[in-house]
Amino acid sequence: MGRLFVVGLGPGDRATMTHGAYAALEAADVICGYTAYVELATALLPHKPTHATGMGGELERCAWAVHEAAAGKDVALVCSGDAGVYGLAGLALELAAKEPSVDVQIIPGVTAALAGAAVLGAPLVNDFCTISLSDYLTPWETIAHRLRCIAEAGIALCLYNPASRHRPDHLRKACDILLEVRDATTACGWVRNAGRAEQQHKVLTLAELRDEPVDMLTTVFVGAPQTTIVNGHLVTPRGYRIDG
Q1: Are 224 and 212 in contact (CB under 8 A)?
Q2: Which of 124, 147, 154, 222 has the fewest Cβ atoms nearer than 10 Å?
Q3: Residue pLDDT, tens place only, 34-74
Q4: Going from the N-terminus, what domains does the chain have, and what CATH number goes with each?
């Protein structure tokens, strides 16, 4: 019986990777995943055999990983961040259901919302929501509806996949929806390459965020109405009383 480790790599370096994730990579006979994520893993374990596919090859690589595990190999199917947050954990479990001999283990990782929040301060200390602006698998009408609901709910929001070459205006459209309810001065921020050497970040208002150049490597944070900027950091109050 083979094992299928569905591994969240976090941002990708050893410092932000869980011990469990690294142990799974060490134990695996082969590492499988999207090309860029396989490269992150093999930078730490360069002699491991790999199977990599490009963007859009999610079904193929999950099926390959399940097939190899069913044949008796220990396979690490790698994702950036956490495999259960816009990752492949769900698809892997669905495919592996047809192979009862495969032992599937989901290994958690540091998702971009948490890595980015740590850079910006504490924007997610209270209730928050994550929404992906990619309409590759979810229709834009559904995304827009969810944005309106969150705007009304008055909680902090983390936006994944805010823009790409094929949809450069999705962040602008999202901000326009949020601005129907949220104040233009709402504290916001973005982090690009969170937890990596090329990391960049910026704190700004919701009105300013609307015209920011962002990409798929950027995670965007929209504060709650109560979120403030404290010494350059985003802080969403939890409700503690601070005297003095």
Answers
A1: no
A2: 154
A3: 999 999 999 999 999 999 998 889 999 999 999 999 999 99
A4: 3-107 (3.40.1010.10), 112-235 (3.30.950.10)
